[in-house]
Each structure stands twice: as structure tokens, then as C-alpha cells.
Amino acid sequence: MRDGMRRKGLITAAALLSGVLTLSACGGGGDDEPSDQGGESSEQSDADRAAEDADTSTAVISITPEDAADGVGINDDVQVSVEEGTLDEVVMTATESGSEVAGTISGDQTSWAPDAQLDRGTRYQLAVRASDGEGREAHQSTTFTTVSPENSFTGYFTPEDGETVGVGMPVSLNFDKPIENRAEIEAAVEINTSSGQEVVGHWFSDTRLDFRPEDYWRANSEVTVALGFDGVDAGADVIGWQDRSFSFTVGRAQVSTVDAESHQMEVVRDGEPLRTIPISAGSAENPTYNGIMVISEKLKETRMDGATVGFTDDDGEGEYDIPDVPHAMRLSTSGTFIHGNYWAANSVFGSSNTSHGCIGLADAQGADDPDKDGAWFFEESLRGDIVTVVNSPDREIQPDNGLNGWNMNWADWQAGSAL
């Protein structure tokens, strides 16, 4: 910009000087021949312009985003390119920390991009040096700020990338901010399956979106999920920043059916009975939910305190507090587990329901006896396996209580899609 202003100033000054000299010659007696002084000034002006042009690089640098931009995405929004030249050096730094951001210049030296995702809510500076075919340098810099955590949302997903899961595991997204533009966000999720099953989303709330097929996933299939949230407007001045994919494998098909009336659980794998296990379900005062439940968490040992799920005595103390419950697997957000039980008499299992709503299997304290039913079932189970409870006096579990959307028929599930 400054070089252009200098050239314009030189041209203007030369023109003015030439005009002054011409007027002096006309007033000096009407000589038709141009004066030597005027000719020399014009020639000098052309030489100056030529010198200026000779010193100016033809390389044209382009930087995205524009200088002073705010709310810049952290994945692919930062790009540097050059025309009529090559990139010599690109330096990108976080201005507050001074740390340099790694990036790569393309093989033909005409473009550059950061190597990794940037940080949110961070101010960056880019300084670029390029040169043309004559070695003349061009420089350009810009400063910008990435989207802040306050103005962006994060989608936390289940299952984990690379995990092998049971046939009942949905793709569940939980957002850290309410989503107003549900259709835009749902459309930014792409799910592909090796089984070819149709997968549909269902909004349980403005912060939770689950996906599943009409029937359980087909055993031994592969599922890939792409979250294209980067730059997508969620409404209320909130945009997405994630641009990533994850995949998981559906393992063998294991479905276990708990009959609360007969106090037995039948474990079926790939359509074949695997084992029948005596159990103790919820008591008449605290029955176990009926319905289809998905194992969402596996804990070799965990503490269970009744106060955390509303089971308290008159003094507000938990009705139970067991510090080392073995082989616990979560079935609901509200606290339903299927777990080992070492404190009850062996005669309880297969004959009576005594729990506060959980499903108990005979086990050993310390979770160290592999021959116990609780240990065997824990080792044979995956996150995403199905546990269905029947013949309990309680109501059916709500579809949003845990990963239990299978308790909703397909038409109602589809109706919950924003698309």
C-alpha cells in the first residue's frame, strides 16, 4: 500500500513540475523548442517510476481470515496462499503465550495451513513472506481471534472411537449448550453403516440427540460417524467448532432377559441360549423397571450410596452404603444397575426379589472370583448389550433414562427428528 502511494506521489510531482516548466518557456519569448531542463525532468520521472516498478514484487499474498476477524473457526478456517510467487516463510503465533503454531507449506510452495486444530478463544497473528520469480519479497500479516467457548458448543458422543459394542448401543450426542437450530445440527451428523441400515435421529431435549436404526444394529457391522459441526449455526449466537469422525464396531448379538417373577435371567448370544443365571430383582416396595435397557457403563467395583438416588432414612442417611459393589453395569441414568452381590445369602438368588431396584447376581467381595455369576456375566458383556426386564410390577423405563430409546416405537422415534 505504501509503495503504491509513493508511485502516485512521484507521478503527480513530475506532472506538476513539467507543467510549471512549460509555462515558463511560453512566457519567456515564445520559443517553440522545449527547454533542456524540462526534458531532463520528464526523463527523470520515467526513470523513477521504472525503478519503483523494478523493486516491487509481483507475488500476491492472500490470507484467510481477514485482519481483525473474530469468531474464526479452529479447523479449516485459516489458509494462506500466494499467486505469481512462492511462500518463503509463514509464522503463526498465539499472541498471549507467544507459542508458535506448527504448519506446513505445500510442495509447490503456493499454500500453507496449520497442522492441527487451533485453540478456542485465542488471538493469533500470522506473518507471511513470499517472493516472485525475480527474488523480490512481499510481506503481509494479519491478526484474528478464534471462536470463544462462550459462543460455541461441544457435542460429547457415545460410544468411544474404536470401541466394540453390543447391538443396542445408540449414537448419543450430548451438547454443552442448548441447540435452537436442531435441523441444521442434525443434518451435520453423517452416519454410515456396513449393514446398510437406515439410521434416524431423535431429539430427547435441546441438549441431547440420539441416533439408532429401527431394529438393533446387525452383529459384526461397522458404523462410522462424521460430526461436521464446524461453523454450523446452532442459534442464539452459538456456532459449532468440531469437525471430526469416529467409528465403532458392533460385536456379537447378546440379549439377556430378566424375568422378575421367576427370578431368572436367560443370556442369549447370536440367537443361541448361552446361560441361565439366578437373580434377585427389586423388592415389592422398590421394583425394577420393565423394558429394554442398554448397558452404558462397566465398573469392576464401585460404591453405591442410597442417598445419591433418593433412598434415605428419617435422618437423611442412605438406606444403604456399600463401598465395594462388584461387577456393576449401569442400565439407567437414575441408578439402575445389574451387579454382583456378596452380602445376600445364596438362597436369595433365584427365589426372591430383595433389592432397591437393581438386578443382583451372586458374587464375591473383592470381585476376584471368576466362578461367580456376577463375574462371569461382567466378563461376557459389552457396553451396548441389551438387558430386557419382564414381569416386574413397575412401569416401563422411560426412553431417555439412560441409552434406552429402544422403548419407543419407530414411528414415535422418527417423529422426534428435526429433519
UniProtKB/TrEMBL annotation:
It comes from the Bacteria. Residues 1-25 form the signal peptide. The active site is at H339 (proton donor/acceptor), C358 (nucleophile). Keywords: Acyltransferase, Cell shape, Cell wall biogenesis/degradation, Peptidoglycan synthesis, Signal, Transferase. Residues 254-390 form the L,D-TPase catalytic domain. Transmembrane segments: none annotated. Residues 24-58 are annotated as: Disordered. SUPFAM superfamilies: L,D-transpeptidase catalytic domain-like. Pathway: Cell wall biogenesis; peptidoglycan biosynthesis. This is Ig-like domain-containing protein.
